[in-house]
Design goal:
Layout: E1 2-7, E2 10-15, H1 22-29, E3 48-51, E4 54-57, E5 70-72, H2 85-88
Parallel strand pairs: 1-5
Antiparallel strand pairs: 1-2, 3-4, 3-5
Amino acid sequence: MQVTLNVNSNQYIFDVEKNETLLTVLRERLKLTGAKPGCLTGDCGACKVIVDGKAEDSCMLLARNMEGKQIETIESLAKPGKLHPIQEA
């Protein structure tokens, strides 16, 4: 299935598997490794991203359901030459 994802204000088109998670797409296809695979059950929060302004566990979200949503990762917070306080922590 083909989806268009808006990640960190950039659009990407992918063919995704029916059960492929947003976490997998972010890490393996976009090489955005800020979201970490922790428990993979939505309990630990290591894979948190912002989806339409709300914190979500990317391990629990199917990539095919993310079309039309605004996805932000920790990588989007930095300004050139300066880390965001969350990144510094």
